[in-house]
Design a protein that fits this description.
The protein is α/β, with parallel strands linked by helices and about 400 residues long. It has helices at about 1-25, 40-45, 60-65, 70-75, 95-105, 115-130, 205-225, 230-250, 255-275, 280-295, 295-310, 315-325, 335-355, 370-380, 390-400, and strands spanning about 30-35, 50-55, 80-85, 110-115, 140-145, 155, 170-175, 180-185, 190-195. It contains 15 helices and 9 strands. The strands form 2 sheets. Strands 1-9-6-4-2-3 form a 6-stranded parallel β-sheet, with helices on both faces.
């Protein structure tokens, strides 16, 4: 009886959020795309009258000299810059606070998130803390808790996966509690997003594959959830088609600029879909694998996705069938059941071809109850999933991921 009432309350919230997402004024970042487009960002910053930008990135990208072109163009346009490169693979609250202190010390007036989802998410939350000094990172957890707008934020993704360059969301880790959580607010959407495939050419195959599957997860969860609309469905379909057509190409040949550009667009489309239609249990569980063990987010998503789709296959069958056709799988006239089966099988085959494991090697049996509880605390009531999961069902699903 109590569980039935809870599910009704969750569905009521989903209906409210569906209406809200249809009427809220989601900003869309200005897009700079194509090879060499990173060099155009500085001019766009200069014409806004900004003088001193803080570049939020990580040490690996700096050692690879990947930001050199951006930094040179900033100098050429008379813009001073400060580099904060201490962002960890799963950015922490301390990363945010250190970045905020450096921003204030150097008297910066804007931010560039340069890198994968970690530096971009970190830059977003640094911006939120700068504008809202009386709100701690933990106080901003959840939906629409950022009160004042961030300083101007620009994003340059170097991976095709997170879609963070167009989303309301930023994910952060609390190392004290081993918890990973999201902050979501319209104020976190960047002013400009740069999709430059040349920055992605040198990505190792395993990063290419897992970030690409992250983008696919965004598209799939947005599409099969209950809060989609014509805009999000179109973006999710476009993302799925581009990923199926291009991800294995760039995995085997990283220098393919056309395929890299298509993957960057797919990531952007996936982000545009899920920032309005939300995600689901794949993300809720994956966030907690990252918080508990430091498992890279894209890798966790790729491993978990087939299991969650099998869990909700019956409820999501119609949508999975449509997404299969949009992605070039099967043909008109095939049964919805058959198309949904083929879609899930396709994901498993892609994972196998790209050497993505089927289990999470860090996972321990003793941690499963806590991971399941935290995952459902994140998912309920915000994520409009096609089938609502009990704690026991969540624990059972996670056990399938044991090494």
């Amino acid at each position: 009886m109590l569980w039935t009432l809870k599910k009704k309350l969750y569905r009521t919230q989903h209906q409210v959020m569906k209406v809200a997402s249809a009427i809220l004024p989601f900003p869309i970042p200005v897009l700079l795309t194509g090879p060499g487009s990173v060099g155009k960002l500085a001019e766009n910053i200069r014409v806004r009258g900004l003088k001193h930008v803080m570049v939020v990135t990580d040490k690996v990208l700096m050692e690879l000299n990947l930001a050199d072109g951006l930094l040179e163009s900033l100098t050429d346009n008379g813009i001073s810059y400060t580099i904060y490169d201490k962002v960890q693979p799963n950015p922490t609250i301390q990363n945010v606070e250190d970045g905020r202190k450096l921003y204030k010390k150097k008297k910066c007036d804007s931010l560039i998130g340069f890198g994968g989802g970690s530096p971009i998410d970190c830059a977003k939350i640094i911006g939120a803390r700068i504008s809202n000094p009386y709100l701690s990172v933990k106080r901003m957890k959840g939906l629409f808790r950022v009160i004042l707008p961030t300083p101007p934020l620009f994003c340059v993704p170097t991976t095709a996966g997170t879609g963070s360059e167009t989303t309301v969301a930023a994910v952060i880790s609390d190392p004290d509690t081993h918890e990973k959580f999201a902050i979501s607010d319209l104020k976190l959407i960047p002013k400009i997003a740069v999709l430059d495939p040349e920055l992605m050419v040198g990505l190792p195959p395993h990063i290419t594959s897992t970030t690409g599957m992250d983008a696919l997860t965004h598209a799939v969860e947005a599409y099969i959830g209950l809060n989609g609309n014509a805009f999000t469905d179109e973006n999710a379909e476009n993302a799925t088609r581009l990923i199926f057509e291009n991800l294995e190409k760039v995995y085997t040949k990283g220098s393919d600029l056309k395929a890299r550009n298509n993957m960057a667009l797919a990531s952007f489309y996936g982000g545009a879909a899920f920032t309005r239609a939300y995600v689901g249990y794949v993300h809720a569980i994956a966030h907690n694998m990252g918080g508990m063990y430091g498992v890279p987010h894209g890798l966790a998503n790729a491993i978990i996705l087939p299991h969650v789709l099998e869990f909700c296959q019956k409820e999501a069958e119609k949508k999975l069938a449509k997404l299969a056709l949009a992605g070039g799988i099967g043909k008109e006239g095939d049964s919805e059941e058959d198309l949904a089966d083929k879609f899930i099988k396709k994901i498993k085959e892609m994972n196998k071809k790209m050497k993505i494991p089927t289990t999470i090697k860090e996972l321990k049996e003793k941690d499963i109850p806590l991971i399941a509880k935290r995952a459902l605390d994140e998912a309920h009531p915000d994520y409009p999933v096609p089938r609502i999961m009990t704690l026991e069902e969540c624990e059972s699903l996670i056990r399938k991921l044991l090494p």
